[in-house]
Design a protein that fits this description.
- The protein has a single domain, classed as Up-down Bundle (Methane Monooxygenase Hydroxylase, Chain G, domain 1).
- The protein has a two-stranded antiparallel sheet with strand order 1-2.
- A hairpin with a 5-residue loop joins strand 1 and strand 2.
- It is mainly alpha-helical.
- Helix 1 packs antiparallel against helix 2 and helix 1 runs parallel beside helix 3.
Length: 137
């Protein structure tokens, strides 16, 4: 049995609601990053994945129902999506900074030689020298 496809008006409304919820989830993710709350960060990441999946489904339902957005509706959904993309990029940058910090701290614990941090073409920190495993003399 095939699942009934929601009508285009409901799908369009659902897209806006999902984008609103995604924006709130990204704000919660930012708070978790600032508070260094690993559990809240994990919950926000899981919710974000769920919302993106739901958005993809709502978009597909809208298209299958033959929906065509008016310019004002398209502009508003695009504005919401761009705000979410900016927040997600900022959160991703904060995650990468934290990842680099933890990596440098682990390098220090391992006794890796200290030198200037260098970045590869993807903006990721290149660590020089393997040092020694933590807990080994």
């Amino acid at each position: 049995m095939r699942k009934a496809t929601p009508d285009k008006n409901e799908s369009r409304r659902q897209m806006g609601l999902l984008l609103d919820e995604l924006k709130l989830t990204l704000a919660a993710e930012q708070q978790a990053l600032m508070g260094r709350d690993a559990d809240a960060l994990e919950a926000a990441a899981a919710r974000k994945l769920s919302l993106v999946t739901a958005l993809e489904e709502a978009t597909g339902n809208y298209c299958r129902a033959g929906g065509k957005l008016e310019q004002d509706e398209l502009r508003e959904l695009r504005r919401q999506a761009q705000a979410c993309a900016r927040a997600n990029r900022a959160n991703g940058g904060a995650i990468e900074l934290n990842r680099n910090l933890v990596g440098r701290l682990l390098d220090t614990l391992r006794g890796a030689p200290r030198g200037p941090a260098t970045y590869n073409a993807n903006g990721r920190l290149q660590r020089g020298g393997a040092g020694r495993p933590v807990g080994h003399a």
